[in-house]
Write a structure and sequence with these properties.
The protein has about 110 residues and is α+β, with helices and mostly antiparallel strands. It has helices at about 10-25, 30-40, 75-85, 100-105; strands spanning about 45-50, 50-60, 65-70. It folds into two domains: about 1-40, Arc Repressor Mutant (Orthogonal Bundle), CATH 1.10.1220; about 45-109, no CATH class. A three-stranded antiparallel beta sheet has the order 1-2-3. It is extended and about 55 Å long.
Length: about 110
């Protein structure tokens, strides 16, 4: 595989890339390859599981319009299964009663 070098990458982009690589269980190099492959696979659409987002724009006599087309990559059934496989954790303690927490915060002002 040919080597690629990126110079002068802003620190915030590098940190975001590093966080995403760790979350996805990849090295930074593998994460970059994955991102570029996904980008090319979708003709420039940005793939963010489970969505594909395509930005488009057009002009008419009244001005320029930009919009994003969002679709599910694997369909609604796959999204439902993904949500069921990762249920929300139960919130206990002080955070369980949000009304009490808000009232407490208001009282501290």
């Amino acid at each position: 595989m040919p080597p690629v070098q990126v110079r002068d990458m802003p620190e915030d982009i590098y940190e975001g890339l590093k966080e995403r690589a760790v979350a996805d269980g990849r090295s930074i190099s593998k994460e970059i390859i994955y991102i570029v492959q996904e980008y090319l696979k979708h003709d420039g659409a940005v793939a963010r599981e489970p969505f594909i987002i395509e930005a488009e724009s057009y002009e008419n006599p009244f001005g320029r319009y930009e919009y994003a087309h969002v679709q599910l990559k694997d369909g609604w059934e796959a999204l439902r299964k993904r949500i069921e496989a990762n249920p929300m954790p139960e919130i206990t303690g002080e955070l369980a009663d949000t009304a009490a927490m808000i009232n407490k915060m208001r009282g501290e002002r």
